[in-house]
Amino acid sequence: MENRTITEADIEAAERLLGIAYSARERAQMIGNLDGQIELAEELRKVELGNHTPMALRFDPRLPGFEMSTADGVSVERPDMPLPDSDEDIAFASLPELGAWIASGTLTSRRLTEIYLARIERLNPTLFCFATVTPEIALAQADAMDALTAEGKSLGPLHGIPYGVKDLFDTKDVVTGWGAEPYQSRVPDSDARIVTLLRDAGAVLLGKTTLGALAYGDIWYGGRTRNPWNTGEGSSGSSAGSASATAAGLCAFAIGTETLGSITSPSQRCGTTGLRPTFGRVSRAGGMTLCWSLDKVGPICRGVTDTALVLDALNGADMADRGTIKAPFAFDAAKGIEGLKLGYLPEAFGDGATEVDHAALAAARDLGIEVVEVSLPDLPYGSLMNTLFAEAAAAFEDLTLTGQDDTLTRQDEAAWPNSFRKARFLSAVDHVQLDRLRYLVMQALDGLFDEVDALIGPYATGPMLVASNFTGHPCLHLRAGFDMLGSRGLTALGSKNLVAGTVDETAERFRVPQGISLWGRLFEEGTILNLGQALEAKLGVAAERPPLAG
């Protein structure tokens, strides 16, 4: 920077941005060598660091003494049910049902694909949940699966079943726009790892589901993705399209990602079942990076068992993603929950808890397992948010420094452009201290799961939304009931937490779903899946469809 003169007044002003205070003598001492520090930073900014360039440091959620379970394998029985006469009933069927019909030849993958494509054509203009639809690819893949079926071959439980993938995962020769104006014409030349895995598992790609720009919220360059239960409000985000499309029966399942609530929040809003796996279980290679140490990939479905089948196809370490960890995945749908101990934080069911929340806790007690109060150490969990802001700002530094952030549609105080700019004033020293705080939080949750097998609560329970995302613990969010609510506003990332949008109390009210979350031990998703199955059956609310679904 030419003609740069740093004064003591500049330093004093900067102190207020960082929440510190130096003396006049200390400021005077800095004047002589601040230029060198700034020049080093400017030299770094000349290096082109693309979104796919990883950090050298990588996050590992395992603490000393962690022992990986050796249990492996997924067991889900295929139901013996007749094929429905109604296309809508077929569209909303579970993955085991669809798989059984395809395997028996009573339903072809082509017919199922055509059912979903027709529903997309009819409902997407209202929901804005698909950014790109790929009918040619879908029908070609469906025909290939039908040919294998005719030969008596199957690629597994997802054979011939159509899905949508969040539009931050690369798809060869198909636009992958990340929901953001600067990238809306971006066409990759290869597939993301999970796209390859799902194709190998026989799943049929319908297209790219929408996400809020750069994986935040539900506003993207094509509009605002809608909640199928109340199309006057957004579907929350950032896996906005995946939740909306799945809830409305536009696909059999969809893929989402979560950095801080991006699977659980839209699942809460749209009434879907979202599984955020343990950090490191699923490869992110070929996906847009928001935060290297936080991003996770998981399924969004209409039932608990479905999420297990999808996760099984995605599970596995990948050399192309330095954050992945080799881990087996075990789930037996027939396994009981006897002997499990379920914890809850009492403050989560205090002021602010809804009737649905209390009913879900009561239903959990009725399962015949031990349900106990637990607590977490008093730590500034919300402070960890600054790590998210720093990583996200680094991932998209070029937008900030070139001014391209001005092209994003959302420009309010809580939107990414403002957050990225503010993050330039975060302290590197504080960032190191945040990493040390993160270790204390890892110890805190590790201690909690020494006491109980799982934790239950509203998805934004106390510190759990922030804490468990930073420790990497898995979370299953499922529908628990319904409430009458007015339209909810934009999701906002605050300085300490994630706000899922304030409710307009004066607006017309709609019957919308509400959910409950289950958190579990690292790499033990099977436990919360079995609990989720039992709770899903006890609550009996998973099958209801949005009003526009018919």
From TrEMBL:
GO terms for molecular function: glutaminyl-tRNA synthase (glutamine-hydrolyzing) activity. InterPro entries: Amidase, Amidase_dom, AS_sf. It comes from the Bacteria. Residues 112-529 form the Amidase domain. This is Amidase. It comes from Thalassovita mangrovi.
